[in-house]
Amino acid sequence: MFAVVTPDTIHLPPGAVVRLLGSWQDYQALSEQLGDRSSPRIKYRDGEILLMASLPEHGRKVSVIADVVKVLLDHLEREYEAFTPITMELPQESGIEPDYCFYIENWQAIAGKNRINWGRVSASQTLLTR
Fold this sequence. Notes:
Shape: globular
Strand order of the largest sheet: 3-5-4-8-7
Number of domains: 2
Order of helices and strands: EEEHEEHEEEEE
Structural class: alpha+beta
Oligomer: single chain
């Protein structure tokens, strides 16, 4: 199976990674075009856009890691918010879609929110799994 990337269609076979030259504005437009669908994953870093289609084994491993983190946090009696997937955009810098996020410190800052403004809520306090 081949990767297909056109202005109207993006189809990647499982395990594929496509690197494109692009600006932050290109990343935002492509991210908007993809919407909330889970595949392909999209990432931006200085002048480069990455499109990735995960393999099923990746999802299984992420689930195990997330379950271990939950058990540890519950054992430590720590409050937290956990969610997946989410697009984290740090304007003009990077955009990533981690598989799972845990907000542990100041978890109240994001509790119950559908959208997170990373300009107001610190991304540095987020535990990410990839």
